[in-house]
Amino acid sequence: MSTSVDAMPHAALYIRDALELKPVVDDVSPPPLSHRPPDRLSVLTEEERDQAGAQWPGWWRAILSLEARTHEPSDRRDFAAWLAPMAAERARTVGDPPDFDALTGSPTLKKAVVELFREAHNWSDHTRSPDPGEAYIPWAITRDVAEEVAARHGVSPREVRGVVILLGVEGVWSNVLEPGVVVCSLGCLGDDAIATDLVRTAFETGLYR
After folding, report:
1. Which of 85, 106, 127 is the last residue of a domain?
2. Tens digit of each residue's pLDDT (9 = 90 or more) over 127-163
3. Whether residue 172 sits in one domain with residue 121
4. Dihedral sign, CA of 182, 85, 95, 135?
5. How far apart are CA 41 and CA 183, in angstroms?
6. Do 17 and 119 fall within a single domain?
7. pTM, to two decimals
8. Mapping DSSP to helix (H, G, I), strand (E, B) and coil, where does residue 167 land?
9. Could you tell me the residue range of the domain that residue 162 belongs to?
10. Average pLDDT over the chain, rounded to whole?
11. One domain, residues 93 and 179
12. In contact, 94 and 102? CB cutoff 8 Å
């Protein structure tokens, strides 16, 4: 089981919430951040916010897809060889500061991201989890569910893998991003039964991906 509470998804959510963007709500769009960012409505006009709201979901999906890729099993003994293609994919699909050229096709969103990303990134480092040490799923849950899933499917526990991407958003919310990858709110970890179900979902869906 691999888990993360990373800055980039939280920076994107900061930009969404600080600008009060209204993207089309789908299963992958989480609730508002639990720590609300300051008002940055002045960065865009009302018309531009509508445009950026329409452009934001595509960027969000690209961010989550890249996040999932970083958790894929790989031989990282040669870290530079692993990092180079990941960095290239990030530049191509998500964009890098300060220019975020990947967003050239979404110019209004690009304007907002270029303006707010440094602020959003710094904010996310400090507020995406009130206690990062408590943000991860207890090992006992992961172990027990891995053994259960392995026994049910007649495979070695070493073949049971999953990813949980954690977000500091309101409430109890989760979604299966792709086979083997679950995105959920930190609030899901406050209930062992919910956390167990999420781990089971990640393991079960990822077993034959």
Report:
1. 127
2. 555 454 454 789 999 999 999 999 999 999 889 999 9
3. no
4. positive
5. 28
6. yes
7. 0.91
8. strand
9. 132-206
10. 90
11. no
12. yes
